[in-house]
Design a protein that fits this description.
single chain, alpha/beta, Rossmann fold, two-stranded antiparallel sheet, 16% strand, globular, disordered N terminus, Competence protein ComF, PRTase-like, DZR_2, PRTase_dom
């Protein structure tokens, strides 16, 4: 008697059953051991409870389409062909990147999520940022990127921290966008001082030659992901490097934006 060749081998069936049982066990554990909301501390099965999730992601802010800087209505200028809003700084001295999507200002309570992600390895915060960045992108009307890449850390800082917080956002965001994610697309070849401690001009000089593109980006739209955007100097230097390597367009996906330097 012939064996039915199309049936999967026993090992494959066993692996599939094991994965299913693991998923069931994880769900049961979540129910049995509920966690706390990262913002308010109430019992929640998710990183944020339903109340915090609804309350904190709908910030009514007018932002520059290029750099995501919050704008006062009186500060808005429309000097380009598109109908989007731009700050005077981006119109007078355009950065190398084309667009920036930012979820909210870097301030309480959402800054807690950024700190938890960056310094305490709470990687679920990265997935939460990615979920909302994807929703924002869907409403933006922007063209989809061809590839998603995180702002890279220097080898020294990566070894010290053990992970790249931008990659914790970039990877789930790429899955939601159904595009390729590449953690090694750009590398940081110069270890620089923390940007938060420097003034604007020093920040620009600090990162001017810090990056190298390792893959072919000619003609591509690259999405660059970071957790916090402050002056924009790092993202500008990175976008400039990508454009010199042939990238057609660069869009920043930023979790939080500092309203002022």
């Amino acid at each position: 008697m012939k064996l039915v060749s199309h049936l999967p081998p026993f090992s494959a069936l066993a692996a599939a059953r094991a994965r299913a049982l693991t998923t069931i066990a994880r769900k049961a554990l979540d129910i049995a051991l509920p966690s706390q909301c990262a913002l308010c501390g109430n019992v929640s099965q998710q990183l944020l409870c339903a109340g915090c999730d609804e309350q904190n992601w709908n910030e009514p802010r007018i932002r520059c389409a290029t750099c995501a800087m919050p704008l006062a209505p009186s500060y808005v200028r429309r000097d380009r062909e598109d109908v989007r809003l731009h700050c005077a700084a981006c119109l007078d001295d355009p950065p190398a990147f084309n667009d920036t999507l930012a979820l909210a200002d870097y301030r309480a309570p959402l800054d807690t999520l950024a700190v938890e992600l960056k310094f305490r390895a709470r990687l679920a915060a990265g997935a939460e940022f990615a979920r909302h960045l994807h929703a924002m992108f869907e409403d933006s009307g922007l063209p989809p990127p061809d590839v998603i890449a995180p702002v890279p850390l220097s080898r020294k800082r990566l070894v010290s921290r053990g992970y790249n917080q931008a990659w914790a956002i970039a990877r789930p965001l790429a899955r939601r966008l159904a595009v390729r994610a590449d953690a090694a697309l750009i590398v940081r070849v110069i270890h620089t001082a923390a940007q938060s401690k420097l003034d604007v001009d020093t920040r620009r000089r600090n990162v001017a030659r810090a990056f190298v593109v390792r893959s072919d980006v000619r003609g591509k739209h690259v999405g660059v992901v970071d957790d916090v955007m402050t002056s924009g100097a790092t993202l500008d230097a990175l976008a400039r490097t990508l454009k010199l390597a042939g990238a057609r367009r660069v869009t920043n996906f930023v979790a939080l934006r500092t309203p002022k330097d």
